[in-house]
């Protein structure tokens, strides 16, 4: 009996040794296969570059020049409220040193700039530029109406993100396509903005009419206030502000460089005022010419003095 137990133990030990050897061989074979597969996978991974999701990191520097009026300042405040990714800076002292603006944008970690330039305390120009290499657009701002002035019934959440709506006329011209792309970068609020809120409740519209860009801001209402339990019905209510932009010139660089587009139909406000004064001066000249002609006619109608006149007889 003891000899049988010894023989069973010996067979069990042999079986375990052979199993270990076979397991080691199988493990070694599997490691070799894994190494070869991993090498092929690494080659495939190296062949296919990894794609990263690009984040929308747009920040806009907002500033103005010296000499802005209260209406211009209120317009800037309205834009600052509408765009939570805007960083407002102090006024720029010199109007001739626009080359300093890219450095200011770099110091403020901004890649877009909106610069309001006031001339003669009545003319407002808007520079929209992409930093640091351009392009940049110079526009004349007209028909400015701020939120406080309009007193519209529309309202939106402060810091909410707005949709951008561009007219189809932007895609018909080259300068329109460039302006649309630049405005998308400036007025499009990124979802990762520090002051932005995860709501979309208003829409910014840009329309081209008579070669001018018309800006409007509307609130989106999904339900009719008169029938709150009725079906969903999208309506738009204007909030403000509103203004009109006339493109003057598009430059290749930031606030300078080669001219990409020039508006041949643009007339400066100073030339318009000069023409108005000239028209008013024409009325004065016509009146003076009429007075002079009347005096000449009176001299011609005057009779010659008679020799028997009292003044000559009793002289």
From TrEMBL:
Subcellular location: Nucleus, Nucleolus
Ranges where the record places region Disordered: 1-41
Coiled coil: none
Annotated Basic and acidic residues bias: 17-29
SUPFAM superfamilies: Class II aaRS ABD-related
Annotated keywords: Nucleus, Ribosome biogenesis
Keyword Nucleus: yes
InterPro entries: Brix (IPR007109), BRX1 (IPR026532)
Start-end of Acidic residues biased regions: 30-41
Domain of life: Eukaryota
Domain Brix residues, every copy: 58-256
PANTHER family: RIBOSOME BIOGENESIS PROTEIN BRIX, RIBOSOME BIOGENESIS PROTEIN BRX1 HOMOLOG
UniProt family annotation: Belongs to the BRX1 family.
Protein name: Ribosome biogenesis protein BRX1
């Amino acid at each position: 009996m003891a000899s049988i137990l010894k023989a069973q133990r010996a067979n069990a030990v042999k079986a375990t040794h052979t199993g270990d050897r076979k397991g080691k061989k199988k493990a070694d074979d599997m490691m070799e296969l894994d190494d070869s597969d991993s090498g092929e996978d690494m080659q495939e991974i190296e062949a296919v570059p990894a794609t990263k999701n690009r984040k929308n990191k747009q920040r806009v520097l907002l500033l103005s020049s010296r000499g802005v009026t209260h209406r211009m300042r209120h317009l800037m405040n309205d834009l600052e409220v509408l765009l939570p990714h805007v960083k407002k800076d102090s006024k720029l002292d010199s109007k001739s040193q626009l080359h300093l603006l890219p450095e200011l944008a770099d110091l403020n970690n901004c890649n877009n700039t909106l610069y309001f330039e006031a001339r003669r305390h009545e003319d407002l120009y808007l520079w929209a530029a992409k930093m640091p290499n351009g392009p940049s657009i110079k526009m004349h701002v007209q028909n400015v109406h701020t939120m406080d002035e309009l007193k519209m019934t529309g309202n939106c959440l402060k810091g909410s993100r707005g949709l951008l709506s561009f007219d189809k006329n932007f895609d018909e011209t080259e300068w329109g396509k460039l302006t649309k792309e630049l405005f998308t970068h400036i007025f499009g609020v990124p979802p990762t903005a520090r002051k932005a809120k995860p709501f979309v409740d208003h829409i910014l519209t840009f329309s081209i009419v008579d070669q001018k860009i018309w800006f409007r801001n509307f609130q989106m209402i999904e339900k009719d206030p008169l029938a709150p339990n009725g079906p969903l019905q999208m309506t738009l209510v204007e909030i403000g502000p509103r203004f009109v932009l006339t493109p003057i010139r598009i430059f290749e660089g930031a606030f300078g460089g080669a001219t990409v587009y020039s508006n041949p139909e643009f007339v400066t406000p100073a030339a318009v005022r000069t023409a108005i004064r000239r028209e008013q001066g024409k009325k004065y000249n016509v009146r003076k010419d009429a007075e002079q002609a009347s005096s000449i006619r009176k001299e011609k109608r005057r009779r010659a003095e008679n020799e028997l006149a009292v003044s000559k007889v009793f002289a």
